[in-house]
Amino acid sequence: MNGFGARAARHIGFQVGVVLLALFVGTALLSLVWTPYAVDALQMRSKLLPASAEHLLGTDHLGRDVLSRIMVGARTSLAVGLIAVGLGMSVGVALGAWAAARGGWVDEMLSRASDLVFAFPAVLIAILITSVLGASAGNAILAIAIFNVPVFARVTRGAALAMWSRDFVRAAVALGRAPVGITLRHVLPNIASVLIVQATIQFAVAILAEAGLSYLGLGAQPPTPSWGGMLRDAQTYIFQAPELAIWPGLAIAMAVLGLNMLGDGLRDLLDPRLRLLRVG
User: What gap in Å lies between CA 82 and CA 73, rounded to an integer?
Assistant: First the structure.
């Protein structure tokens, strides 16, 4: 652990990612207990105000405080990302580990099902699901989680197959241990770092997907603030008040950038083949 901390202290990208992620999560958590104004407080006399001491990021077309809505939008993105990635990871890891342990028709079936899902763009799948089930944050989470399942299944399968060829796993097989026990005791702990890095990357993808669905009106529904919904509302006033699009767009960019830099940093720090090349 001390070695990891020393390497992390020298990895600038990892540190930047941690700072941006901490800002993102901290803003979301702070919005649970405090925002400058109520996010649904309409003040038509104060609409489209520029940034000022009273409203640090100005107000939108309905007089609502933009900073307050950015803060709650961070909470929406964080919740969607955590739940969607958590669900997709849980199912995908289980399927990938099962396929690697069983092989044969199970492995072949998982591979073909993954190919089928990957044949369609993620956003198209999400639009299809939310169009059929209805526009809501819950259905957006379901759509994003479904796309994450084959991603984690493939990553888990590939990493687990490499573990099953290792001598210590072969020794466990020779001792007569059950595949489930070998998977839980030997395989999954040794591929945990790969899954953590993939989860970080998929978290960033989930934030982008949620913003895209909300922009199309298929994600979180008003009055719940979301960064994608704020971008949709801002397009009408893009020339009159361009900052309405700048702030949520910047929030999305910073959150995704932070998660990607964190994921790249974790990959460099946890993969022994990259430590000397990129951290050293």
Answer: 14
Spell out a b/e string for 224-244, using b for 16 or more CB atoms within 10 Å of the CB, else e: bbbbbbbbbbbeebeeebebb
* pLDDT one-digit tens code per residue, 164-223: 999 989 999 898 889 999 999 999 999 999 999 999 999 999 999 999 999 988 888 888
As its CATH architecture, domain 2-37+59-279 has Orthogonal Bundle (1.10)
Q: Distance between CA atoms of 94 and 196, rounded to whole angstroms? A: 15
Spatial distance between the Cα atoms of 183 and 163, rounded to a whole number of angstroms: 9
Q: How many angstroms from the chain centroid is the CA of residue 63? A: 31
Q: Are 248 and 73 in contact (CB under 8 A)?
A: yes
User: How is residue 106 written in tokens?
Assistant: 């199970």
**Cβ neighbour number for residue 8 with a 10 Å cutoff:** 16
Q: What whole-number distance in Å separates Cα of residue 158 and Cα of residue 165?
A: 11
Q: What is the mean predicted confidence (pLDDT) over 127-142? A: 86
- Cα–Cα distances in angstroms (integers) from residue 40 to residues 24, 65, 136, in the given order: 22, 9, 18
In terms of residues, how long is the chain?
280
Type of residue numbered 16: V
User: What does the buried/exposed string (b/e) look like for 53-64 if buried means 16 or more CB atoms within 10 Å of the residue's CB?
Assistant: eebebbbbeebb
- pTM (2 d.p.): 0.91
160, amino acid identity: A
- Cα–Cα distance between 229 and 105 in angstroms, integer? 44
**DSSP one-letter string for 116-161:** HHHTS-HHHHHHHHHHHH-SSHHHHHHHHHHHHHHHHHHHHHHHHH
Q: Taking the domains of the chain in order of start, what are their residue ranges? A: 2-37+59-279
Q: What is the CA radius of gyration of the chain?
A: 22
Residue 187 tokens, joined: 């395989």
